[in-house]
Amino acid sequence: MLFVNATVHTLDPALGTLNGTDVLTAGATIAAVGPALPRDHAAVMDCTGSAIVPVFDASVSPLVPGNPATFAVVPADGRAFERVIWWPEQARTILVDGVARASFVPAAPSSPPPRLGVWIDATGHIHQELTADGRYDETRGGRRHAYRGAFRITGDRIVYRDDLGFWAYGRFDGEVLHHAGYTFTRAAR
Question: Containing H/E element for 179?
Fold first, then answer.
């Protein structure tokens, strides 16, 4: 499949974001990324006005040849990553290992995720509460509600979107949460 004329957010530091670019897939992998790729016998999707962004569950791979063809085609309005994380239903197309999918959002668990509760950094300065409604509330140095927003946990990754508009990311390693240079452990219940 050939996706043409998109804004491609490669996540490759050497390439960055490429405008007016094509992505060619071959089975489960990305075969080529670049402008005006040959259309030799490929099904073509015109992505004018769209962005192509990697999607992830437990990991994310840059959009470069040889990596998995796992990405979403979303409106190119400057909010591509926000759309793919928070509003995946707005995607024009989602590929996971080269296969078109209706969604890449994991099914909701039947019971609350085990990672909810209060997490405290190693110094005790930051307390972060993760609640079942997908919200977080952070206390810093005793100042309650210093930061608030939404979060999403997928596998061992957590993505935060603060109510003020900024984004942050973290990773769980067993019962430890690594986030923004801090190490958190769950408070005793």
Answer: strand 176-179
* Domains held by the chain: number: 2
Residue 135: left if φ>0, alpha if ψ -120 to 50, beta else—which one? beta
What is the predicted pLDDT for the residue at 112?
Answer: 54
Looking at residue 102, what is its pLDDT? Answer: 66
Tell me whether strands 176-179 and 50-54 are parallel, antiparallel or unpaired: unpaired
Give yes or no: residues 93 and 21 share one domain: yes
Of 44, 70, 101, the residue that ends a domain is 101
Q: How far apart are the first and last CA of the chain?
A: 51
The dihedral built from the CA positions of residue 37, 26, 75 and 154, taken in this order, carries a sign that is negative
pTM of the predicted structure, to 2 decimals? 0.58
Look at residue 187 and give its three-state secondary structure.
coil
Q: Which domain holds residue 24?
A: 2-101
